[in-house]
User: What shape does this take?
Amino acid sequence: MGFVWQTARKDLLRLMREPAGLLAWIGIPVFIALLMGVLFGRGEVRPRGIVLVADQDDSMVSRLVAGAFSQDRMAEMFTVEKVKEDEGRKRMNEGKASALVVIPKGFGDAVLAGTESRLVVVKNPAQQIMPQMVEQVVKLLAEAGFYLQELAGDELRAMNERQPTEAEVALMSVRLNRMATQVSKWMRPPRFAVETQVVEEKKQQGPPVGFASLMLPGMLVMGLLFTASGLSMDWWKEKQDGTLRRVLSTPNGPASVLGGKLLAYALLASVVSGVGLAAAHAMVGLAVPRVWATMGWAVTVSCCGYLAFVLLQSLASQRRVGEMLVNMVMLPLCMLGGCFFPLEMMPANLAAVGRWTPTGMALAVMRDTLAPQSGGMWWAVPAAAVTGAALFVLCARQARRRFAF
Amino acid sequence: MIEVRDLRKSYGDAEAVRGVTFEARPGEIFGLLGPNGAGKTTTIHCISGLLNPSGGTIRVMGSLAQSEPARAQLGVVPQEVALYEDLTARENLQYWGGAQRMNGSKLKARIDEVLELTGLQDRSKEPVKRFSGGMKRRLNFACGIVHEPKALLLDEPTVGVDPQSRVRLLELVRAQARNGACVLYTTHYMEEAEQLCNRLAVIDHGKLIAQGTLEQLRAQLNELDLLRLEGVFDEARVRAELERLKGIEIHQNDGEVVLLSMRNAPGRLTEVFAAMSAAGAEIRGTTLKQPSLETLFVKLTGKELRE
Ligand SMILES: Nc1ncnc2c1ncn2[C@@H]1O[C@H](COP(=O)(O)OP(=O)(O)O)[C@@H](O)[C@H]1O
Ligand SMILES: [Mg+2]
Assistant: This one.
């Protein structure tokens, strides 16, 4: 065991002296994620959220508030449904919508009159992003409403008197939304308050939607696989430098050498996934037990990846062939398995294939461990362990036969 | 003690080692001398357990090669510099010592000792990639002896080394033998083998062609001197003229080089030159060599041993 640890330590030391490679392996996935973010908007993929609006006021102003969620980019993200308050609360309790906005009776008049008024936003705690956005929008509207009232209160009041048509309200809603976005920076504090309520957390319906579950697993798996492929190249370096042959003429067998190099990879994978998940914890509040569970899975499954790459390298006749072979396997698997962009965004037939690739399955399990309540994919851990053990035996045999000479 | 009996090793169809038998004893430096491709490295790999021999047996300090006790007794200094270039000299020694089951303060003390021996103590904290070729060779050697092995395999440890480093390395090898280690030293440098080895074997094309102490090998030579002539020659005429002279053997005669062996060559130079000029030869260079391993090698294989 001492030798296994020394080998791991030696490899990590070497890696730290030459960190450029490591930075690239981790940097590439981060870069791809950023690129996807630019292409598909702000990092999260657009899952559609459902906003329930209980409009007890049914005034022009309240229709403006409800309409704000159907404008421009908002419309891409939200589906607005008008509901009665108790029906809305019931659906929120079942976890079936992102947020419920309750507009109390007399709200419109109060806004127009510039007197105190109150809006209620009920948020779904299981979701990370959507409820926050709803809350932001409503707060923005509150500010805009106040500002409009100051600027154009008379006009609005006059319009209100005339019983405006739906078209007029819609048009107004567009203007309001745009204006609100533009002027929000200079707003004074709102005259009316937005009260935020959070529904008590219920049994999870599925993984949370948003950054943590959509982009993070893919980035993590990609970073770990790139690192694994990079470290698998080290076998060629050790072969060419003669250090592998030298160590195999000491009393240590190929299994301890492989064990040491695998341990080095596992430690590196722990650090990489640890940093990624700690960021997720800080940014989107991923719960600490989830962090540990996900990290455990990420390290286990990526160790299998490392061993598979070493095996591929050992099948190659030379360094460049090995590198090509590993890339030829790794990149399509990343793509198909949903590392570059989630399976949900892929054409259905590709996604069906991708789900059954090793990366696709690893990602599915990772989503499961990221979810607030695990959906029982615990079997994946022993499955990965058995696969890893089989790969280990094959690699150790190959290490002597193919790499020593 | 390293005992090699009828060792054979083939790579596919090519036989690299074809029945090699020798024995290196504790406290001695046993030389394995031969040109490139003779099968020296293959023999070393078989002893260190890296290669499976195709035939024969090898024992290291009484244990079969490839067994753990055999490998634990062995120190190997490979032909190529096999070091981690990003690590420092000390870190390399730590790793290779650890690989030989050394640890703690004993390892640390021994590392200081071998750094001192190899003259690397001042540079021990520098990454190896900044070292000169000679320094790398010395560290390569140090990593092979850090665990004080009872049997030491040295595969051409002085190739490409500056004269200073070479002298230092050879002295280190002698010190190992003095301390009781059994040293197997391969080389293609005649002078090195002559200076260093107590006993040696000459290997060519995978076969041992002579074996014994330096004195025994020289006796085989019958005090023959080697005369090498360079110039422009007519092969047939040169052969015809030289064959008239008694006691002269022609080893090479290819129009540019004529290689002859004879007793008392200095006394017969006039005779040889006369024959050569009768053959219309134009001589541009003459080298006379007294009995040595090189003349033995020429006698046994019919060719010179060059790098
Ligand atoms: N891995 C190998 N595969 C095939 N042939 C080899 C291999 N290694 C060495 N040989 C051949 O075996 C012979 C002996 O080589 P080697 O033991 O390296 O000689 P030396 O060390 O004396 O220079 C050479 O002809 C060489 O080409
Ligand atoms: Mg060699």
DSSP finds eleven helices and 14 strands in chain B. The domain at 2-218 of chain B is CATH 3.40.50.300 (Rossmann fold). Chain B touches chain A at residues 45, 48-51, 68, 71-72, 74, 76, 78, 80-87, 91, 94-96, 98-101, 103, 127, 143 (CB under 8 Å).
